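Protocol step 4 of 6: record predicted structures for both targets in the notebook before any analysis. Target 1:
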Amino acid sequence: MSINECCNTDVICCEPDASIPEVAALMRKHHVGDVIVVEGKDEKRVPVGIVTDRDIVIETIALQVDVNAFTAGDLMSTPIVTVHEDASFIDTLRLMRNHKLRRMPVVTETGILFGIVTADDIINLLTTELSMMTDAIVDQPVREGRLRR
């Protein structure tokens, strides 16, 4: 399975000059813990960084500095690690593990933002798949029993 089959294509983004309160408001509005910082417009958005809720807390609130003094470009993690949309699910997991990342933008061959995959997405997918396998394992003896009467 390619990662483009299970990534979220509704990515919350901002430009590097977005204020930290704007970034936090986007996170709150969309119930996400990260915002991808992009350059370009519409379908030509190129990811250049990521700001997480943790970045905001650690870099501003914990230091008791004015959050209005910073932009997404100031706090974003960069360079950003991305994965190609045609990468396999397993290769993406390895990349996330090797870089110790919980969130990874998915890009096209030309580097345009396609989607995002998160650890939560992966856990949800694997849980669903394992649950379906469990159902098959549990139901198999019952089905076999009915067929062999």
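Target 2:
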Amino acid sequence: MEELPLLNKTILVTGAARRVGRLLALACVHAGADVIIHHGHSQQEALDIQKEIASFGRQSWILEADLSDPNEVAHFILRANEISRLYGLVNSAAIFEPLSLEQTTLADWERHLSINLTAPFLLSQAFARQERSNGEGRIINVLDWRALRPGADHFPYTVSKAALAAMTKSMAVALAPRITVNGLALGAVLPPANEAVNEKIIEQIPAQRWSDAKEIEDALIFLLAGPATITGEIIHVDGGRHLV
């Protein structure tokens, strides 16, 4: 793959101001891309990453939107595309709450599905419509190893990600051949923001370590800039955790 495979292409990354979204946005920048930084309520963090992106000589723009509001989501791609012609969409924004089946209320359920599933659906649908004039494009849905190995923990999150995995495959067929749709299923990358770190996590991973940020970057760029015949795939970057 060339040194800057995304040179001068514009990628929209949702949830780009914080945590994994930030990592993915910077991965695009390292590959030569310009980035539209979406955030819901992290203005200062968005400004911080914008400053960092500028230090690499790339352009970035900040767009705020509440992804739980279907009306905002429906117009978000249009707003982004008016700034710069979009080549890629990375659906990274998500909520991850440690709720069991018994603890999950209807409000919890609907909140997880609206952000983790409905928003990627609406964004991808709008992206596909605008790509009719833009040409080819790529969609990456950020998943979790739990998506293909659902368990009882993080119940609404896990169900929403499992549904997103199914939607990834369905969209890959529906949007071919102009747009590729793939999933990036992550494991232990960053400690959870709203939970104590479970030191036993590493014991459950065949690779016996956390994933390195560079490994996540490489996988994302492969899906954004690699062969266009790869679509409907879900690449696990989790040290083999989904296997055990």
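Step 5 preliminary note on target 2. The first helix runs from residue 19 to 30. The chain has a mean pLDDT of 91.
Proceed to step 6 after PI sign-off.
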